[in-house]
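Example complex used in Figure S2.
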Amino acid sequence: MEQAPASGAQTLLETLVQAGVTTCFGNPGTSEVHFIHGLDAVPAMRCVLALAENVATGAADGFARMSGATAATLLHCGPGLANGLANLHNARKARTSIVNIVGDQAQFHGYLDPPLASNAEAFAQTVSNWTRRSNSSLTVGADAAAAIAQARFGGGAIATLILPSDVCWGTGGPIAISPPAPPRNVVGEDAIKAARDLLCGSKRTAIILGDDALNERCLRLAHAVGAKSGARVLAHSFIRRVERGGDRLAIGRVPYAVAPARAMFADIEAIVLVGAGRPVFAFAGPDGLSGPEAEGTQFIALGSPGDDVEAALDMLCNRLGAEPEGTNAMPRAAGHREVAKGPITPDAFGQSLAALLPHDAIVVDEGISFGRSVFAATQHAPRHDWLQLTGGAIGCGMPLAIGAAIAAPRRRVITLQADGSGLYSVQALWTQARERLDVTTIVFSNRSYEILFNETRRMGLTPGASAERMFSLDDPAMDWVKLANGFGVEAASAASMEELNDLLASALTRSGPFLIELLLGPRRS
Amino acid sequence: MEQAPASGAQTLLETLVQAGVTTCFGNPGTSEVHFIHGLDAVPAMRCVLALAENVATGAADGFARMSGATAATLLHCGPGLANGLANLHNARKARTSIVNIVGDQAQFHGYLDPPLASNAEAFAQTVSNWTRRSNSSLTVGADAAAAIAQARFGGGAIATLILPSDVCWGTGGPIAISPPAPPRNVVGEDAIKAARDLLCGSKRTAIILGDDALNERCLRLAHAVGAKSGARVLAHSFIRRVERGGDRLAIGRVPYAVAPARAMFADIEAIVLVGAGRPVFAFAGPDGLSGPEAEGTQFIALGSPGDDVEAALDMLCNRLGAEPEGTNAMPRAAGHREVAKGPITPDAFGQSLAALLPHDAIVVDEGISFGRSVFAATQHAPRHDWLQLTGGAIGCGMPLAIGAAIAAPRRRVITLQADGSGLYSVQALWTQARERLDVTTIVFSNRSYEILFNETRRMGLTPGASAERMFSLDDPAMDWVKLANGFGVEAASAASMEELNDLLASALTRSGPFLIELLLGPRRS
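Predicted assembly (1050 residues):
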């Protein structure tokens, strides 16, 4: 029989590594020093340091999205976990696979209420599908294996293991083997037949694809269904990852804004949800509208999120006699290869980005107001993956880019970063510099919470002086070049499309991170 | 009968203002645009914008500590609250008085699971003494009044009111009157007699003062008790606010570090806890030690935290015949008036700070490793208040300074800021610039999590290459001058005591914020 590791920390680390969980994003504290010490004995585990926990959790999300593997985080007690909850909320909505390891007080110590004593379970349960406190270094291997299994259920979930420090320093127990991820749920024949009947009927239909249906093959299947049935095919609004560009088939999204979303569904009578929830506005206003569909729209589900929707789409094609390998009537990508000149607009930006995007890039989109239409403007770019904010908790962009770059080290990562959102987790730039990641960040610097001006007006309100001041970031104006430099990232600003084009072209060929502050001028009221 | 306000948001704001809650630190989102719009109609409410929620919550804590009033926060949905939980954890440990207002989805909308839908109550309950969801614009006044009352119980507590956006935009109901804060619990005669008997007995005793016993008068009372009984008088380790310097009586703290804390109590047989919990180490190690007291030490409590310990100390003086107005044998402050020269050390820094500190300043101490001994080195400075990290959740320093400066606009605020901790909430600098606050920040730039090196060694471990890399912040080295400039705060670095002295002297006389990066050189292993 193999000898057990020397400490609980090593048992835990070896259990993670044996299950293929070999990258951990963390910010440690005193209760984790034995875990960190264990890293010296388990070199197969790569631990990436973040200056703030929301950077670590967002990076884990990005890593899981691009690798398809389970990411780990290391966080310091309840409050350290608290600092990372917002991006775990986003990861939960994205259904990515993350095991959080949260250090805590030694079990004999916590009852005295030291400063960092807290209800770590309560913090964890706000975003976790599964939470457990490990009670012994002899069983921590089994606890870790259970966490990994839970994090892999249904394609991806958030599992949190609370790790008292005495469990780390105690004598190591056996390394445990995590069971293989269970297969995804099969979508039943009845659901496939119902979708087929609806799509063959007389109603005007749309198909909304959830995150599990946005890989290249699913898009081909879905477009074949659309071509055969006349259904409009769309992705949902808040995309975990979509494979697009090059010779892939293009896909639009359900618009974020209420008016265009309503217009898009005005003539639709029935919607097939392919592993997707119902379309829903990010927020409702006094008009009482919650979603874009016309009144009386019929919804049917082809699988729930996490189900095997690829197989379901395959069968649906079969039942419909649709031909996924045919290309007629399918929206192939082809378009601009020239950068844009003239005024800085979202479309001009999108055109330049599409023209300059390297093959097989990864685009992380937290562009918010300015960036909203860049998605459409880049569908003709060379092939790439596109990752978005999934849960509305802003501050995910630059952290996601860290994880994506570590998961795909030979691919260029481009982050489209709204300035207000980027400031929540600006500390991410330091980790990008430290890990020498090939990440190019473009900050849309409009120096305001533009979305809040827009939403205020949508509600029929006029911002007065107090409201104006709460939405404006121009007093003082942030200087993103200095901020980036302060964190060790080279940077420059662009005040015209010409400057942007030059900077972006050179940034995309250089090693390591670079930030471009795109100066959008004062807010346009 | 007075007309009710036009909207639920205005009812809420008017209720807060009528109860004297007139300062709100916030970071709004779409669900709060009606609240923000209400600010235009209720100018008595000052709303201070933060770029990240942990800045808002830390500022609220600082405001409450210095004003003695209840502070409000405005946060955006569960994840926005999540971003502010760490400093609310600190505020809860400090027992400060805060009402959190957390926007949420309109009630008819949340069931569709929009991106920011979350269990806001679950997030809130991790740090709140009281949580309620307001269900109607007609009753939101009463809800707010209840929140304020709860936040004022026992001297200070955290109350969280969840505010669906439809409650904000609905027709306003009546403004509610918050009941006066209930009087603090009286410490009973038995407890006073027990303390007296113990202190008059033959045991060697110490008195540990909690946060409610650290104002000028309580310190005088406690020192009189000490002088009369021979008891050693100390403050607990994690101080909300202590009034010190000038002609006030000095007070030492229970040391943070294990060895000096153990030494301090080695000969003590009994400890009187004055509104304080038992002394406890921030973390326990494999040595199994949880607190500094010798084995068999007797503890007795003179009141619990939040009780009327000032009255209890008064009565204890009376029972002992101690004379608080007498000054014999009491540790008066008097000392250095010259800045230090030579090598940069904690003591040299403390000497310079004491020499340069303006009268009636406020010192915010998140100095961690380098800063630990500055407290002792400044007890002879001119009179000032000293605020500390109370709950171990780092990232409180610069946010606390915002709130302190807004609560006490004519007083100079000096923040002693460890670099690693400061990076969690570096966004605070922007609000300092925006609000033109007279805050001078000194960053102790050792470019490492020095405390983790120290704790690792205390545990008997030697950091290897992996551990070393997780504790080091020097690759790349942060440039705090650029970071501060990027947020609109002027800054300079000092590499010698002479440079520091010059910079500090000039910074302390200027208007608005200034940051000094004190370069401590490479880590000393």
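The longest helix of chain B spans residues 77-94. The two ends of chain B are 72 Å apart (CA to CA).
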